Amino acid sequence: MQSVGTVPTISDRCLQNAHKNALEPEWEALFESISYGFRPGRSCHDAMTKLTKPLLGQNAKKLWIVEADIKGCFDNIGHKELLSKLSRYPGVWMIEKWLKSGYIYGNKHHKTNSGCPQGGIISPLLSNIALDGLEKELGISYYWQKDKRKKNGGVWQTKSNKIMVRYADDFVCLCETREDALQTKTILRNRLQERGLELSEEKTKITHLSEGFDFLGWNFRRYKSTNRSKGEITLIKPSKNNIQAFKDTLKEEFKKLRGQNQAKVIKKLNPIIRGWANYHRAVCSKSIFSSLDYWISRKLMKWGRSVHSDKSRKWIGNKYFGCFCQGRKDNWVFGYKAKDSNGKEVVYYLEKLAWTAIKRHNLVAYKNSPDDASLSEYWDKRKISNEEFKAIQNISKGKNKVASRTNYKCLWCGEMLGSEGYANVHIHHIVPKRLGGEDTYQNLMYLYSECHRQVTAIGELNPKVLQKLQIKVTINEKKQCWMVSKQPDNIDDKGKSSRGFNVGKRQSITTCVH
């Protein structure tokens, strides 16, 4: 049992949230730039990107890693040190009461002399406050280096021979030599003891990058390569433990789905596959995605054999696999066709990991915080990027390719697609199927259902509609085909339209008229 395991009541949760809202803006301005856990505007991917930059390149020097693990961080945070940091806060007396409230077990009240209540709204913030300052105590500092190539005119660089990256209570330090790594471990042990914490000697390790280390579900390692001048390359991949945990999760689901119909299999597995793929889409995952797709297909065949024990593998393959993903020429997709309540044919299929495009994460800059009013433009741009990512998460990979052509926007009303799911979104054929339009990516786009009704009422090929949707349609008399191309309406100096189309990469399709 956790020593601090009380579950806050609703009234306590409301009060904790009020105190959190009062404390967070002040501490966001004070927190170290290398802290990424439980902070607004920061994520695991920021921590990974921050750690990746000094490890890449042929001239990387900080190749010795201290993998630090704190023993029972939430249970052992010292109250005295934490409350001294909050001494200027008027509501510190309330926080002290929460910390020392204790817990009831076996009809007996137990005192709590250390730790933060796990499950409390304010606990992650308190843990970040308690651990803040470790970077400074390691002697790590930064300076502004001018660089005309950067948008801001420069970049923050570190002066130290060490780099630290922390996500909540999980952190690593990069050092240039083994001696530096040993010294860092000693400093961390002493500084954590002042906070009532201690390093786990069994789990805290010093390794070289050539051996590799795991952090937040990824493996960082330097491999030998014949394509590099120094014969080495650093790659970040999903860790073996994370891959095995993903497989174990799917195994448990397949056990529960044994004997169930195909619809339940797709409904249950798609969110798991999509979530895992989106988490690892910013690292070198393509080959792992492909191998896992093969592993999943074998599990699906095994599921098919359990449902149809008297049928051959060929029969099961023909029944459950086919070219179900619209626009993709993939004949081995697990799916089926059905009709909705309106009698319209709908296709359901299981997504593949390999359909997820690899896209590097854009690291949040230095100490930038959403609470800084002077950085509103910066955070507005990141917000748009995050909305696009949420849109990707809420849509299947086949549909994603269609939505990405319009930057996940409905071009008729200008609103972001998928912010509340894709239930009220309709797929629009630029050249209607009755006029020979085909189900190809270039002839499809997403519009909100109400917008689609307006478009069809006016006429799909009406010049005003095509202009608003940034589409140009002409007839090729010689080939008797429709020619459909992207036609931006507002083009800036860089050759991009206001809606994100690139003029230099104008695509076209041909759809034969019947």
| Helical run tally | 16
The span between the termini is 72 Å
Determine the mean pLDDT: 84
Helix proportion of residues, in percent?
25-40%
Question: Outline, from the CA principal axes?
Answer: globular
- The radius of gyration over CA amounts to 28 Å
Sheet-strand content, in percent, reads: 15-25%
User: By helix and strand content, what is the structural category?
Assistant: alpha+beta
Query: Widest sheet: strand order?
Result: 6-7-1-8
**Uncertain residue ranges:** 1-5, 488-514
Largest sheet: 4 strands, antiparallel
Seen as an oligomer or otherwise, the chain set is single chain
In total, the number of strands is 19
Note down, in words, how this protein is organized.
The structure is a single chain. Helix content is about 35%, strand content about 20%. The protein has 16 helices and 19 strands. It has helices at about 10-30, 45-50, 75, 80-85, 90-100, 125-130, 135, 180-195, 240-255, 260-280, 285-305, 315-320, 375-395, 395-405, 450-460, 465-470, and strands spanning about 65-70, 105, 110, 140-145, 155-160, 160-165, 170-175, 205-210, 215, 220-225, 230-240, 320, 335-340, 345-350, 425-430, 445-450, 470-475, 480-485, 510. Strand 2 (about 105) and strand 3 form a beta hairpin.
In short:
With 514 residues, this protein is an alpha+beta fold. Helices cover 36% and strands 19% of the residues.
